[in-house]
Amino acid sequence: MVSHLQRKPLNEQRGEAKIVQEILKRDSRLQYVEFRLIELEPEASYEETLEGDECCIVALTGSITVTEGEHSFEGIGTRESVFERVPTDSVFVSGGKSFRIEGVTKARAALCYSPSLTSLPTKLIKAEEVGTEQRGKYQNRRTVHNILPDSDPTASSLLVVEVYTEGGNFSSYPPHKHDQDNMPHESFLEETYYHEIDPQQGFLFQRVYTDDRSLDETMAVEHGDVVIVPVGYHPVGVPDGYTSYYLNVMAGPTRVWKFHNDPDHEWILDRQ
Ligand SMILES: O=C(O)C[C@@H](O)[C@H](O)C(=O)CO
Asked: EC number(s) (predicted)?
């Protein structure tokens, strides 16, 4: 049985766009984060008016043109597959604005939403501005693309990162959580994971659990699934032979990623 925290692809045609994934507050435990993944054929378009949310449009694969008011970002996107492992372009749009996405080639765009706390300028986040980071050692090595980290003031509440984990490795590990609004020790941030796997028939494991185990779900995740992390630790383990990609969206009352490691496993960080 699929966990209530795991969503299989919808693949629902809506107008000219295929809605591949859609995670809404109204049908999840989330209060801050929403996520949509759309697929567009060349010249097909998707339009949306944002109300209380801001949105980061990630040109996941293929090429798109994003228009908001007088802004037009033409032919953005840098890769045919996320597994080319190069950063891509994104566009940030604040609440109250309308945007249009048009496929230049067949393309996929990830729409990452969170509350719009202040009106901010629409901004192209160019691939070359996306910081790339290597984290961890041994089987905890992974690569991170920081699309909208907390050090970047482009957004008012939204955080967005991409993570690559090689087969046999673990990421979001040692397990950490960010579910207490208790700064400076820990921030409260909900999170979604949009997963892709190379090759696509692969699977990986993601566990979401709390200290008291009132929540403790271990999921077999497949290509295209979304895992919702309303609270708790959320490590990912990738079987040998497969590479994992995931796109994280995070948001909460404070735009700071201050996490707390599971004390039982924090020793992993101290290995020589
Ligand atoms: O460093 C990683 O392995 C990625 C994670 O930090 C991931 O972005 C996350 O869990 C954020 O809370």
From this structure: 5.3.1.30
DSSP designation for 104: S
Query: Is 30 buried (19+), middle (13-18) or exposed (0-12) by CB count in 10 A?
Result: buried
Q: In the numeric block, which tokens belong to residue 148? A: 């909208």
Q: What ipTM score was computed for the predicted complex, to two decimals? A: 0.98
Q: Express each pLDDT in 6-43 by its tens digit.
A: 999 999 999 999 999 999 999 999 999 999 999 999 99
DSSP E strand boundaries for 24-62: 34-40, 45-49, 53-61
Find tokens 């984290």 and name the residue.
135
Cα 43 to ligand 1 centroid, rounded to whole Å: 35
Q: How far apart are the first and last CA of the chain?
A: 40
Q: 102, 48 in Cβ contact below 8 A?
A: no
Domains of the chain: 6-270 (2.60.120.10)
**Cα(84) to centroid(ligand 1), Å:** 20
**This prediction's pTM:** 0.98
Q: How far apart are CA 220 and CA 16, in angstroms?
A: 32
Distances (CA, A) of 219 to 125, 176, 198: 33, 17, 18
> Which of 145, 249, 138, 245 has the alpha carbon at shortest distance from 202?
245
Of 88, 90, 86, give the one whose Cα is nearest residue 112: 90
